[in-house]
Amino acid sequence: MGISKPFPVFSFLLILPLYFLFYTITPTSSAPMQDQFITCLHENTNVSFPLGETFFDPVKNVSMFSQVLESTSQNLRFLSKTMPKPEFIFKPLHESHVQASVICSKKLGIHLRFRSGGHDYEGLSYVSEMEKPFILMDLSKLREIDINIEDNSAWAQAGATVGELYYRIAEKSSVHGFPAGLCTSLGIGGHITGGAYGSMMRKYGLGGDNVLDAKMVDVNGKLLDRASMGEDTFWAIRGGGGASFGIILAWKIKLVQVPETVTVFTVTKTLEQDLGNKILSKWQAVAADKLVEELFIRVLFSVAANNGSKSATTSYNALFLGGKDALLNVMKKGFPELGLTSSDCVEMSWIESTVYISGFPSRTPTTVLLQGKSPNPKINFKAKSDFVKNPIPVSGLIGMFKKLLEADSALMIWNPYGGMMAEIPESQIPFPHRKGVIFKIQYVTAWPNSDKRPSRHINWIRDMYGYMMPYVSSNPRQAFVNYRDLDLGRNKKNGKMSFKQAQVWGAKYFKDNLNRLVMIKSKVDPENFFRHEQSIPLLLV
Ligand SMILES: Cc1cc2nc3c(=O)[nH]c(=O)nc-3n(C[C@H](O)[C@H](O)[C@H](O)COP(=O)(O)OP(=O)(O)OC[C@H]3O[C@@H](n4cnc5c(N)ncnc54)[C@H](O)[C@@H]3O)c2cc1C
Ligand SMILES: *[C@@H]1O[C@H](CO)[C@@H](O)[C@H](O)[C@H]1NC(C)=O
Ligand SMILES: *[C@@H]1O[C@H](CO)[C@@H](O)[C@H](O)[C@H]1NC(C)=O
Ligand SMILES: *[C@@H]1O[C@H](CO)[C@@H](O)[C@H](O)[C@H]1NC(C)=O
């Protein structure tokens, strides 16, 4: 059971005299922990780091600190006043700064959190509810992207967004792409650690299925690549969840072929327009996982308040890797119930489709991808996920819509599987949701800061999740680790958890792959330095 912070008492005694020395030299500084960290960084890197650009602390300038903390954080729930805040934020400018940060956090016994794109659903990249004090390393200044069309590959640093990656690929070629997330502000660093699905998954699998190599800083501050980390660790980092095995500095990815012209559409139906759920039932039976793998049709469920009464709508939001005529042909044969017409379809380049499908208003210039912005305003949210292996019967759908209409601001997204997703074995990477999955459900509830009773939204989503149990996967009830959900279980202080407890939530994310993840974790990080509320636990004896 021997997991503890490495040498906390020892390092405190060691550093104390040094700190007083440092303090007298730089009397403007007011945060001892930060001073110790800076001193240690200097000793462990040869690359300078101008303090004004790299260190942000609440004592020196609280408005600047808040601005940096909030910058990429997506969930307002974890930015509230009551949430624990990092002692300071460090933005490394160089790989060796990341290496030194691991060495120094260990030496000083400071809990380290790190963030690439800040999209973690439970805020784990910038808030530690488990352990204090903690510091935040924000990788947003490490965002170089190097595209190599000749050998169909690219290196992307962790702090780059997927939108930037897509843009840089398209800049070099109109027939290359990458099959990662729909939301363009995702950080490539954290995103791929959970698998990374997007609108080309039925054709090419996940982002994590298309990784060739990686650069990672391990628990000893060593810089590793695929060859030096070994195939076990390389397997674990492509889907085993963020921040359990090391800090990814960059991913080398395999580019995929996209046609010059793709087609998108969004067709919205009210409940009245889909009487008897005929369209939705046909989507479940055929259109989700059985049509050509060039076609990705997801369903967005939302509740609209209309003239005092609420109504639910379903929007069929799609990308087809091909032209309009070919798409209309596929739809006429396979999914005529939707009634897709030529005027619903818009032909465009693949890069334009990434802007469309992420939700920016139509015809937004593709340069928006370089701004690292999400199309949606920031909000408080709670989400959950499920995987569906048998079509949900109409009786189940009726109750589901009833629940949906009870909510004030709820959303559901059903995303289709099949195609390549069903061909890749469950153990290829840690992401196990493959053959037999028809679609994934994401439930979301969101509310503004002004909401006086946020708990009712969380109650609603838990209630909805309870209602859906008979219709979704079971033993385990599978969940998507990129949609992290702490309701499923959490590690205790210092990341401690018995393997038995962790199996409850770990198996939901990873199924049988959990065992291999735990073995690898125990080998490469035996002191559990990389820990958070849902990090892969050690094999405890
Ligand atoms: C609006 C929105 C849309 C989304 N759309 C999709 C989608 O289309 N497809 C999909 O698959 N997922 C999607 N997600 C989920 C998303 O993939 C995950 O939240 C992912 O972890 C985000 O990565 P990040 O770097 O932006 O997040 P961060 O919050 O920075 O990190 C997430 C986790 O990974 C760890 N981490 C961060 N950087 C690194 C690194 N360099 N090395 C190791 N660990 C690291 C963090 O410590 C944290 O535990 C979406 C999320 C949001 C909020
Ligand atoms: C810094 O550079 C010197 C001289 O090149 C070298 O001896 C030392 O090991 C380097 N230190 C680090 C931490 O890289
Ligand atoms: C604090 O940071 C803000 C930027 O957020 C800047 O405008 C301001 O001048 C800074 N204040 C001090 C005292 O440095
Ligand atoms: C809204 O409802 C009122 C009263 O039921 C009705 O008179 C009005 O026409 C409705 N407006 C719309 C836009 O449907």
From TrEMBL:
Gene3D superfamilies: 3.30.465.10, 3.40.462.20, Uridine Diphospho-n-acetylenolpyruvylglucosamine Reductase, domain 2 (3.30.43.10)
The organism's place on the tree of life at top rank: Eukaryota
SUPFAM superfamilies according to UniProt: FAD-binding/transporter-associated domain-like (SSF56176)
Positions of transmembrane segments: none
UniProt xrefs under Pfam families: BBE, FAD_binding_4
Signal peptide: 1-30
Keywords: Cell wall, Disulfide bond, FAD, Flavoprotein, Glycoprotein, Nucleotide-binding, Oxidoreductase, Secreted, Signal
Cofactor dependency: FAD
Entry annotated with the keyword RNA-binding: no
Gene Ontology MF terms in the entry: FAD binding; oxidoreductase activity
Ranges where the FAD-binding PCMH-type domain occurs: 82-258
Keyword DNA damage: no
Localisation: Secreted, Cell wall
Family annotation (PROSITE patterns): FAD_PCMH
Similarity comment: family membership: Belongs to the oxygen-dependent FAD-linked oxidoreductase family.
Protein name in the entry: FAD-binding PCMH-type domain-containing protein
